[in-house]
From TrEMBL:
Keyword terms of this UniProt record: Cell junction, Cell membrane, Membrane, Tight junction, Transmembrane, Transmembrane helix
Organism: Cariama cristata (Red-legged seriema)
Family: Belongs to the claudin family.
Record's bilayer topology term: Multi-pass membrane protein
Domain of life: Eukaryota
Residue spans crossing the bilayer: 6-27, 47-69, 89-112
The protein's name: Claudin-1
Cellular-component GO terms for this entry: bicellular tight junction; plasma membrane
Xref: PANTHER family: CLAUDIN (PTHR12002)
Pfam families, alphabetized: PMP22_Claudin
Cited InterPro entries: Claudin, Claudin1, PMP22/EMP/MP20/Claudin
Compartments reported by the entry: Cell junction, Tight junction; Cell membrane
Length: 139
């Protein structure tokens, strides 16, 4: 195979493996999981880290799919390519673009769930409100 086709295959395999790692890292950071439940900040950071890995996996899939799509488009409009051997965009390219978009969007949603920074102010305390007197004050 030519080098560009081998590179697109390698990018897609890397995207799949990164997506699998991102699933495990992001699941560790979910609020409903018992793992790391003693430190919520680290748990949220794990979710954000999983989101970053999802974005990287989506970018790898997007580059691979677009690179192959560019190759197909150039071969289609090349006048020296025989008519019976011309490729067109198939469903696999559209599925690849959709998968890359969904992976990047999901990673962005996970990254938006980052923990808020703690302020240096002490936490506010709620003071009890005085209940209206009913006339029967018990001691």
């Amino acid at each position: 195979l030519i080098g560009s086709l081998q590179a697109t295959r390698a990018l897609m395999v890397a995207a799949i493996l990164l997506g699998l790692v991102a699933v495990f890292v992001a699941v560790t950071g979910m609020k409903c999981m018992k793992c790391m439940e003693d430190d919520q900040v680290k748990k949220m950071r794990m979710a954000v880290f999983g989101g970053v890995i999802f974005i990287i996996a989506g970018l790898a899939a997007l580059v691979a799919t677009s690179w192959y799509g560019n190759r197909v488009a150039r071969a289609f409009y090349d006048p020296f390519t025989p008519v019976n051997t011309r490729f067109e965009f198939g469903s696999a390219l559209f599925i690849g673009w959709a998968a890359a978009s969904l992976a990047m969007m999901g990673g962005a949603f996970l990254c938006c769930s980052c923990p808020r920074r703690e302020t240096s102010y002490p936490p506010t305390r709620g003071y009890p409100k005085n209940a209206p007197s009913t006339g029967k004050d018990y001691v």
